[in-house]
Amino acid sequence: MRARKTTALNTELSVFLVDAVFVGTAISALGANTQEREADLTGPLEALRPGITESRIFSELLAQDKLQSEALLEYTVLTSYHVADLMGEVHAEKIGRMEYRGPNKTRFVATREKGSGLIRHFVLNPLIASDIEAASATHHCDSAISPANYTLQLLGEQQVGPYLCFVVLAMPKRREKYLFEGKVWIDVRDYAVVRLEGHPAKKLSFWIERADFVRQYQKIGGFCFPHGGFWLPQKDETFLQMRLLGRKVLTINHQDYSMNRSAGDNESVDRAQGFEIR
Questions:
Q1: C-alpha 68 chain-centroid distance
Q2: Which of 41, 211, 226, 249 is deepest in the core (most CB within 10 A)?
């Protein structure tokens, strides 16, 4: 009898967590409660400087994205995926290297995995596959912060760690899995995304009552790049409010970037150690 109950519970867990995979296709990210999220923002919201408009934000974002795409030939990064409860107990984990080769080739090479095989097979493996799919040129256009996908409401300026940012509210034009609704923090100098926070534009499933996400970026040194570095993901978290099972946490950490290593002598070869946000 106990064995049947355990099997039923594991089956329910796998079904519920499979639905969480689609969070990754929306933005791969998360958020905790409002108080926790605000603690990461080191300054109050200030008035927007003159001359900043929605059209300028879009134009500069797309220009920055194009510039980085052309300069970033390749990178590898140590990436870890894990699913845990709110007490921090990890149910499953998968660690490996994500390898990108421009313009649109990405693969993940696993080096270590542990925990529930059920969750690794039905949750983490599809999530990694969706990350790779979302990195392709076609899906990148589908999810880009552009006039085709979003309208923007300008909120002001705010300090986020060492970066002074424009803050905008992004509203999706379609309810699709690659889009989201929420706030975007954009570096005032580079016009690169520093932080995303919100929820998927499309409801995930009956089993997931709410999904909040935060993605944080880091600037990695690149001497040949006009602004002195590349903006790449640092940490993604997704908090899921699930029917019957309560809250679960999906976390993705990116550390130890290595970029443009196979480029010629005239290209930059950069390496940087990422760090985990706690």
A1: 17
A2: 211
Q: What is the CA radius of gyration of the chain?
A: 19
| SS3 call for 171 | strand
Question: Domain limits at 240?
Answer: 2-259
Under DSSP, the state recorded for 136 is S
Q: Report pLDDT for 32.
A: 37
DSSP-H helix ranges across the chain: 2-26, 34-39, 54-71, 117-119, 125-134, 137-143
Q: What is the mean pLDDT of residues 250-275?
A: 64
In a domain, 264, yes or no: no
Q: How far apart are CA 16 and CA 258, in angstroms?
A: 35
What are 27-76's pLDDT values in tens digits?
A: 343 333 444 445 466 789 999 999 999 999 999 999 999 998 888 889 99
What CATH number does the domain containing 176 carry?
Answer: 2.50.20
Q: Average pLDDT in the 86-111 region? A: 91
In a domain, 229, yes or no: yes
67 in any annotated domain:
yes
Task: State residue 131's pLDDT score.
Answer: 79
**Long-range pairs of 203-207 with CB within 8 A, sequence gap ≥ 24:** 204/19, 204/20, 204/22, 204/23, 205/19, 205/22, 206/243, 207/15, 207/16, 207/19, 207/242, 207/243
Residue 145 DSSP class:
S
Q: How many domains, in total, are found in the chain? A: 1
Q: Does any domain span residue 202?
A: yes
Question: Which segments within the chain are labelled E, that is strand?
Answer: 74-85, 90-101, 105-115, 150-160, 163-172, 180-187, 193-200, 208-221, 229-242, 246-259, 270-272
Please, which residues bridge with residue 183 across strands?
A: 169, 197
